[in-house]
Structures are given as C-alpha cells and as structure tokens.
Amino acid sequence: MTFLIIMAGLFMLIVLEKPFKKKSSGFLFLISYLLLIVVYVIQTTFVEVVSGGFLMIFAVVVVSPLFVRLVHSSLRKRT
Question: Which residues does 67 contact at the CB level (< 8 Å), separation at least 6?
Fold first, then answer.
C-alpha cells in the first residue's frame, strides 16, 4: 500500500506543472519526498528501519499536499 501511495505522489508531481508557488515549500516537499523514498527502499531492501504503519502514515502526510493541489487545480480549470 505504501508503494502505491508513493507512486501516486510521483504521478501527481508529474501531472502538476508547478505544484508549489514558493521555492522554499517546494524544496521542503522535495526533501521530504526523497527522504520517504530512501526510507522505503532501505526498509524493503535491507533492514526494517521503522514500522510499516508509520511508513504508510509518513507517505500519506507527504503525498497529501500534492493531492490537495491536484484537486484544487482541477476545480479551478473547470470554472
């Protein structure tokens, strides 16, 4: 399930041309998303760093701003 959340976030990042207006929030998101991917790869490949539930919660927290931006931009395009 965590993998699907991470891939959905990547898809939303590609679909949105400019997901964040401020550079600082964009860098913060990028760092947190890359950290999520690194922890997921280490978790699934080598050793269990954190519990699976915590990793999924972290994935939802990191990807949710992209989901909000995607919904907001799709509603703005309709009107």
Answer: 8, 12
List C-alpha distances in Å: 39 to 3, 24, 35, 36, 55.
Answer: 12, 22, 6, 5, 8
Question: What pLDDT is recorded for position 57?
Answer: 96
Query: Running DSSP on this structure, what letter comes out for residue 16?
Result: S
Determine the residue type at 26.
G
61 Cβ partners below 8 Å, 6+ apart? Answer: none
pLDDT tens readout for residues 26-66: 889 889 999 999 999 999 999 999 999 999 999 999 999 99
Torsion-angle region of 40 (φ positive above 0: left; ψ -120 to 50: alpha; else: beta): alpha
42: tokens are 């280490």
In which residue are the tokens 């939303």 written?
A: 12
Please indicate, yes or no, whether the overall pTM of this predicted structure exceeds 0.90. no
